[in-house]
Amino acid sequence: AQSVSQHNHHVILSEAASLELGCNYSYGGTVNLFWYVQYPGQHLQLLLKYFSGDPLVKGIKGFEAEFIKSKFSFNLRKPSVQWSDTAEYFCAVNAINTGGFKTIFGAGTRLFVKA
Amino acid sequence: EAGVTQFPSHSVIEKGQTVTLRCDPISGHDNLYWYRRVMGKEIKFLLHFVKESKQDESGMPNNRFLAERTGGTYSTLKVQPAELEDSGVYFCASSQTGWGEQFFGPGTRLTVL
Fold this sequence. Notes:
The structure holds two protein chains of two kinds.
Chain A: E1 3-6, E2 10-14, E3 19-21, E4 23-26, E5 31-38, E6 44-50, E7 56-58, E8 64-68, E9 73-78, E10 87-97, E11 100-105, E12 109-114
Parallel strand pairs in A: 2-12
Antiparallel strand pairs in A: 1-4, 3-9, 5-6, 5-10, 7-8, 8-9, 10-11, 10-12
Chain B: E1 5-7, E2 10-13, E3 19-24, E4 31-37, E5 43-50, E6 53-56, E7 65-68, E8 75-79, E9 88-95, E10 103-104, E11 108-112
Parallel strand pairs in B: 2-11
Antiparallel strand pairs in B: 1-3, 3-8, 4-5, 4-9, 5-6, 7-8, 9-10, 9-11
């Protein structure tokens, strides 16, 4: 069965620290990859996405993610976090199969950035 | 442009009762999805509509759940009868294409007592 694994459920960082959130998926076929973010009191929104091409993708607010196909990974990074990055982050995989598209989410990582 | 809206924002019902959740997608989005998140767990796919047709309903837990999208606009998700394990946040999302970015609503928090 397809699944998405996020390595950390909770991360606490100080401002200016670097961030890397791990995401691995299990699916052997073609995938589209996403990171969504939910800020406190707000809707889930797209942070960045990978469909094809350059495996290093850049998203909003200085976030980037790298798709490593051989490792089935799509880790999220940010060189220097800010207090406003406090949120919950979800990795999602859109598995493309003969039946169409199905989006599988990870369990989420809660990031708390200390001012 | 209005985003995805969901109603109600919260619902508290007793076991055995019926609840109907509503989702209004972004206008023009043919694809509509329902998801559920039980506390602390992953956001789990329930089903996917393309216009009024169910493209994929493999995530629906059981036959107590019924989703409809008459006319290809808004969608409803009915739970009848509700059980304790149905508690969670139900998200709706819509998209223009089946493989692209999904736009999420605020969710409906369902509590079954």
